[in-house]
Write a structure and sequence with these properties.
- The longest helix has 12 residues.
- Among the domains are: about 60 residues, no CATH class; about 110 residues, 2-Layer Sandwich (Pseudouridine synthase), CATH 3.30.2350.10.
- The chain is an alpha+beta fold.
- The strands form 3 sheets. Strands 5, 6, 7, 8, 9, 10, 13, 14, 15 and 16 form a 10-stranded mixed β-sheet that branches.
- It is elongated.
- Belongs to the pseudouridine synthase RluA family.
- One of its GO terms (molecular function) is catalytic activity, acting on RNA.
Length: about 300
């Protein structure tokens, strides 16, 4: 990353400019210092106590990041919506895990991204900003290095990163729009399932009914928070589980995965600060599920 120092920042310590103006975390600065990165001013390495002058060119070179044992390139189909040197936006297919694990050691989105980077001769790594469940489809944001990930995480915490979903839920919702505000925590004796718990983390889900059919509702959802399984748990808790969501009591007769799709994503670019907006269509399996539900009435 490179920045030209403006008049208003003249006289600042390099450390303060990097931390306060550009939002580089203390953790990243530590990695630059001890893991092989560089901080340059006008192409000369400088300490963080350098006093900046108007017109100085500041450049940060991040160290190469170590990858976990499962983080190896693998051929996985990727639908790339947008890509530059800092971020990548994908339209994720259902049925594919995002990160490798003991249960899914290969064939994940991360493995596919590493293969994609390898083909580009790029040293980029995989930092998931907006993670989706294995069987949830739609838009997903990935940072290509730790700095963009740090900035996007800050944007997410500030509510500047917005995601909208489409879902098919069981039953007709009594209100055309509403908010579910109920804390979510891990269910006892389960490493996967979540539930509404008084001691859980605050979780807020806003929804609007787009189509109310007999026996089901097609809704759009916007998250205010981003808890694991939030949409699935919230709708199940009010008696309207997502179709296909067997974990939380959903009907699996017309679709065999949770009928949930992230169709819209808006966020400020971590470097340029330009607001980016993306949207994708409803996937075929959810379109077919709606058709089946409509014709079965």
């Amino acid at each position: 990353m490179k920045w030209i120092i403006e008049k208003q920042h003249e006289g600042m310590l390099l450390r303060d400019y990097i931390r306060q103006v550009q939002g580089v975390s203390r953790r990243i600065l530590k990695a630059i210092k001890f893991e092989g990165g560089l901080i340059l001013v006008n192409d000369v390495e400088q300490s963080v106590r350098y006093v900046l002058k108007e017109g100085d060119e500041v450049e940060i070179k991040l160290p190469i990041e170590k990858k976990g044992n499962f983080m190896v390139p693998g051929e996985v189909p990727l639908s790339i919506i947008y890509e530059d040197k800092d971020i990548i936006v994908l339209d994720k297919q259902a049925g594919v895990a995002v990160l490798p694990s003991y249960h899914y050691p290969k064939g994940t989105i991360a493995n596919g991204l590493l293969a994609h980077y390898e083909q580009q001769n790029s040293a980029s790594t995989v930092h998931i900003v907006t993670r989706l469940d294995k069987d949830t489809s739609g838009l997903m944001l990935v940072a290509k290095h730790r700095y963009s990930h740090s900035v996007l995480s800050t944007s997410q915490q500030a509510g500047e990163l917005k995601r909208k979903y489409q879902a098919i839920v069981d039953g007709a919702l009594s209100k055309t729009s509403g908010t579910i505000d109920a804390p979510i925590g891990r269910k006892e004796d389960s490493i996967i399932e979540r539930e509404i718990r008084e001691n859980g983390k605050r979780a807020v889900t806003h929804y609007r009914v787009e189509r109310n059919l007999t026996g089901c509702s097609f809704v759009t959802v916007q998250l205010e928070t981003g808890r694991t399984h939030q949409i699935r748990v919230h709708f199940s808790s009010i008696g309207h589980p997502l179709y296909g969501d067997s974990l939380y009591g959903g009907d699996v007769s017309v679709i065999q995965r949770q009928a949930l799709h992230c169709y819209a994503l808006t966020f400020p670019h971590p470097i340029t600060k330009q607001t980016l907006r993306f949207s994708v269509n409803l996937p075929l399996d959810m379109v077919n599920a709606l058709r089946k539900l409509q014709t079965s009435l």
